[in-house]
Backbone:
């Protein structure tokens, strides 16, 4: 493997020879992500890249680390795949049996852990600073951070076209495991690799996959027929950038969800969705909530450890029987459960359903309100935290504006992620429909509502209503940006 210098960076080429090559169509989740990526090109969008990193096992030299990178490429088809769009618009992925992956070598500058970490962050930002050329480039970029002359950290940048957050975590963990195994003198190939995107695509084309697709599309059609044209009023142009991002980092939210989950006998995701629906109702003035739920589609044995981009969006109507928050929790739980069960389908077929519904109505549908809970799958919040402890945690909550863009297609997009002990809520919203103060009020309102729900029922006369909770958050009137 020869080294070369290019614009101050030293790169080596890691050659590999994999066990097989093949060509398939994209899996359904991949196609969903691919279409999103194409919409934003040539702009470089943050969601197109996922980070995986692994500390180098003690005693390993650079050649050993590069051998481990080769092992990773050989084990996983998706890391040695190219993707091309055919003249008819179909998209094909080809797993390459042989090839080379450039690996960047970067010196930390000093031998401190802080310097290594700072360089790893700088490398990650550089690796994701340009879009992948999927037809001519493998969907993984790799760098090794060196402490003096010894490797200290492997940083991987994965394309979202072949990976989701779960894939990035699995790849990072496996990179660490391969290096630890090699450092301990073991040379076995490890467990059988999990399914990859090409495996998923082949299953989806099978009779069983097509049955899954038909049931999911029927659910999609039924929910779509009940969707309002939009939950918000006519857009009112305001200053650029149009789409504003904001984040709330809270250790109180997980604690509150743990206590409330036991009270309402439901999971944290259903509670988060119910609070989201309640506060959206304050913004729209409508009890009925129409959202596109992001389904991670990792609920079966075959998908739990699979590598790939599996997530898809499912239209979901949440319509409680009354103004009671308990009824809203029940509606959110049942609606989301049905949606997640029907989360895998051919997205091009779903797009045809949308086009047909729009043709029948004579106008476009706003499918830009989205909810994505990536936090709950790893959550394990205690159910016995006191209200005083949760209030103390709330004192450390941080709200930040995260920037804006004029290039997007959403109305409201709430992401929830982070470690089990700290939830980060990130909202990207169309400021032509939701004014800046309402974006901030929504995020702060989530924590305020959860804290209010923790209060004893008796002093206020029983179970709180959704209307009362909207007032707690200060979101009580339909909004159109002004």
Residues:
């Amino acid at each position: 493997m020869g080294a070369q210098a290019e614009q101050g960076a030293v790169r080596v080429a890691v050659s590999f020879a994999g066990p097989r090559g093949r060509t398939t169509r994209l899996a359904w989740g991949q196609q969903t992500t691919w279409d999103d990526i194409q919409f934003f090109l040539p702009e470089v969008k943050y969601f197109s890249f996922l980070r995986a990193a692994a500390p180098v096992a003690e005693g390993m030299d650079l050649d050993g680390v590069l051998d481990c990178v080769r092992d990773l490429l050989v084990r996983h088809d998706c890391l040695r795949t190219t993707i091309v769009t055919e003249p008819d618009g179909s998209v094909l992925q080809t797993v390459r049996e042989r090839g080379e992956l450039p690996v960047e070598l970067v010196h930390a500058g000093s031998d401190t852990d802080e310097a290594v970490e700072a360089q790893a962050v700088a490398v990650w930002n550089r690796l994701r600073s340009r879009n992948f050329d999927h037809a001519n480039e493998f969907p993984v970029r790799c760098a090794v951070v060196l402490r003096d002359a010894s490797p200290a950290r492997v940083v991987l940048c994965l394309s979202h076209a072949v990976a989701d957050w779960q894939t990035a975590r699995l790849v990072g963990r496996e990179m660490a495991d391969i290096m630890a195994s090699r450092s301990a003198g073991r040379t076995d190939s490890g467990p059988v690799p999990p399914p990859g995107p090409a495996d998923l695509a082949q299953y989806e084309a099978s009779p069983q996959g097509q049955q899954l697709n038909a049931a999911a599309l029927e659910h999609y059609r039924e929910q779509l027929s009940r969707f309002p044209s939009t939950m918000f009023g006519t857009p009112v142009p305001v200053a650029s950038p149009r789409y504003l991002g904001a984040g709330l980092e809270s250790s109180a939210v997980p604690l509150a969800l743990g206590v409330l989950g036991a009270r309402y006998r439901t999971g944290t995701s259903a509670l988060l969705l119910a609070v989201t629906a309640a506060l959206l109702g304050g913004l729209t003035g409508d009890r009925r909530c129409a959202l596109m739920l992001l389904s991670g589609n990792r609920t079966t044995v075959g998908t739990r450890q699979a590598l790939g981009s599996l997530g898809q969006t499912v239209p979901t109507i949440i319509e409680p029987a009354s103004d009671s928050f308990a009824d809203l929790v029940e509606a959110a739980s049942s609606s989301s459960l049905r949606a997640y069960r029907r989360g895998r389908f051919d997205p091009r077929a779903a797009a045809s359903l949308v086009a047909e519904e729009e043709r029948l109505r004579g106008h476009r549908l706003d499918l830009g309100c989205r909810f994505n809970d990536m936090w709950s799958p790893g959550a394990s919040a205690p159910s016995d935290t006191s209200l005083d402890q949760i209030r103390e945690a709330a004192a450390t909550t941080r709200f930040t504006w995260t920037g804006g863009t004029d290039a997007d297609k959403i109305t409201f997009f709430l992401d929830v992620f982070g470690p089990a002990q700290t939830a980060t809520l990130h909202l990207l919203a169309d400021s032509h429909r939701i004014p800046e103060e309402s974006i901030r009020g929504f995020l702060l309102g989530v924590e305020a509502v959860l804290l209010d729900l923790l209060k004893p029922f008796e002093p206020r006369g029983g179970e709180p209503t959704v209307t009362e909770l909207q007032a707690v958050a200060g979101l009580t009137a339909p909004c159109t940006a002004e």
Summary: The longest strand covers residues 98-107. The first helix runs from residue 28 to 40. Confidence is low (pLDDT under 50) at residues 1-8. Residues 71 and 189 are 8 Å apart (CA to CA).
